[in-house]
Every structure is written in structure tokens, then in C-alpha cells.
Description:
Elements: E1 18-22, E2 26-31, E3 34-39, H1 52-67, E4 74-81, E5 87-95, H2 103-108, H3 114-118, H4 126-142
Antiparallel strand pairs: 1-2, 2-3, 3-5, 4-5
Amino acid sequence: MTEPERPVADWSRDESWAQVAETHAAAVFLAGDRAYKVKKPVSLGFLDFSTPEARAAACAREVELNRGFAPDVYLGVAEVRGPDGQVCDHLVVMRRMPAARRLSTLVRSRAAVAGPLGQVGAPGYARPVGHQRDRTAALAQSAGLLPAALPRSVRLRAPART
């Protein structure tokens, strides 16, 4: 078997064609120009992905919520099928972002990030971001991903009026 051709992209030469990254709640498989995020079957108190149904709902919510900010990145939800052809899980399908464009890479390299991050404070931008944050929290609570009553230390504040 031969390795497939590397997709044309602006990834750095030392970034491998395929990678895996893990968090406490998901595994992300980077392959070619795509990223596939699988929710781990865990229940951590503040989130519950312990059933296939919960993971499917979480994938759908993630795409729904994040498409508003990155419609060209969040491509949809795909089914994972087992050897018998039956759906056994779901995953989020995203466009893979080059490592050089990730915020963590820019910060580590001390690159100027004030321009892109400064847009968050631009006039007319704070209210939509605040509204989306509130909508995200409400949807996450309705999906059981956040408790109905958040501890005061993580309570969401209303967006500032401008």
C-alpha cells in the first residue's frame, strides 16, 4: 500500500500528514485537509458523553454552535459505522487548520495576535459575541452538557451594552 498524495495546503513541512490529538473528552484525528473529532464515552459531571445518543447530540450541537463563528471550518456531522454496517457513533467533520494559523502556535512563537483578537472588541462585535455566548450556554444546558444552575464562579454575564 502506498501513502496517498499529500493534499495541497500551507502546512509547515515538518507537520505530518496525519496526527491524533486528545483531550479529556475527545480525540481529534487530523488527516489530509480534514479533522475528525470523536467524543469519548465519558461522564465527567459537567458533561455526559456516556451514550452514543449523547455523543451524537453533542456533535450536532458543536457544529450548530460553532458554524456561526467558523462556517468554513465546521463541515458537519458524520456517522461512524461498525463492521456490521450499523451506525455505532458520530463525529464532527472539520476543515483542518494549518498549525501555523492556530492561536496556540502564534502565541508560542510570540507572533502579533492583537490584530485578529482586537476584532473581538470592535464596535458592533461585542453584542453578537455576547448573544452567541448566551445562546451557546442555553443550548448546552438544554442538551444536558451544562448544569441548569452554574456555580457563581462560572456564571455567564450579560454582554455589555454599547
